[in-house]
Amino acid sequence: MADEEVNGDTDEVQHEKDKTQKKAAKHDSGVADLEKVTDYAEEKEISSQDISGALSLIGDRRNKETAERLEKEKELQKVSVKKDDIELIVKEMEISRTLAERTLREHRGDLVAALITLTN
Question: If you write DSSP's letter for every residue of 36-101 in order, what string do you get?
């Protein structure tokens, strides 16, 4: 009976070793697959010329947008609005004076159109 217990323990130990080996083999195959993917990605190098070109495009676009925004602000400043209209919008809509004035300027001083925009 003692021999059976020893053999039983040995079988369990052997079974555990087999499980561990199977897990290691499965893990190793996953690592190999991952290596294939990373090797491919590493082969593609990004040149500094491409990066600088992309950055210059982004910078140019940002400068263009800033220039357009400044041009729009200049045009809005040319529009004359009545102070009474601004005060009316501030009181009725309970918004800041800056927002009221900007909205009124965007609508070329048209009080009704500005109010409609602010209520929508």
Answer: HHHHHHHHSPPPHHHHHHHHHHHHHHHHHHHHHHHHHHHHHHHS---HHHHHHHHHHHT--HHHHH
